[in-house]
Amino acid sequence: MRNFVYAPHLQRVIFGIGCVAALPEEMAKMGGTKALVLCTPQQRGDADHAAALLGTACAYVFDRAAMHVPAALAREASALASRLGVDCVVAVGGGSTMGLAKAIALETSLPILAVPTTYAGSEVTAIYGLTEGGMKKTGKDARVLPRTVLYDAELTHGLPKGISATSGINAIAHAAEGLYASDGNPVMDLMALEGIAALARALPILVNGDAAETTEARSQALYGAWLCGTVLGNVGMALHHKLCHTLGGSFALPHAETHTVVLPHALAYNAEAAPDAMRRIAAALGRPEASAATAVFDLAVSCGAPTSLAAIGMQESDLDRACDLALQNQYANPRALERQAVRGLLDDAFHGRRPT
Ligand code: NAD
Asked: Which of 34, 17, 42, 136 has its CA nearest to residue 94?
């Protein structure tokens, strides 16, 4: 039995079809009386629905959340929250909207109520990110962890199939790296395995199934996303997350797609150094006979997701610089980071080679 530390974050999590209707009472339970509602321009409809549920308890809908949380936007939204005199923030959306809510919480200490609509998992972590002058800075702060999360699969109906698949594999990446985290613990392992299994079952149905099947699959996927996100929030991530952070931050590659392409290759890189975790990941993916790397790659293919960095906008001439950046400020990783091998990993990911 390994030694471990278990210190979970406390949050109230409500799960169920239609549970967004409980928004007013849940906001009141956390002490909120007047909210700033946040969303992206594309999700104004979902945010307006939340605002209508809140009635006069909604002070304003700010609909300009954007990828990677530009610091100027965060300052503008924080100033607006102060000017309106709100006492909480309601975030309706994916990781970009959660990110803006977290930036406001960091500045103002306002509590967040999260209504997630993708599988990214940010709503259950105390990790924030802010981008200024082309540099994305990340950190951890307990104030940015949402107090309450409403998981309502109805709100994922509008999520395009392509984003459903890549966002789901983004979630699987959190759980996979959690299983070989240097600070992992048995409870997070259980959540990681259950989360991977739920997503592996749900994603192909979400993409290929009929309407009746996809309703249940949406709930399964959101359940998996909660579990996988919780793992991300509680244990340290490794090479895969470092690579994706580098590729997204320095080469403007899309977040969930980058996770989808890189994960099989990061797992192949770590395979020999973390054999037990790999065996458990493959089994949770329903492919005990395969390597974890191959099983993730095949899942992406079966969901019609991108499998190469070339397909999502990476230039081959940038691979050397990406490798150099990935080797700086290294995260703990089961296998030591060897320049030539990491460069080989990036080459495999660039060309979308199926790992063995
Ligand atoms: P996103 O929030 O950028 O959403 C992608 C697009 O899909 C947006 O246009 C959004 O409006 C739209 N969308 C989202 N849900 C929808 C729905 N149900 N119906 C219709 N459209 C919908 O994408 P994401 O992958 O959720 O988040 C990525 C960002 O989150 C990145 O910046 C990443 O760094 C961050 N992130 C942070 C953490 C953390 O713990 N801090 C964890 C994961 C991701």
From this structure: 42
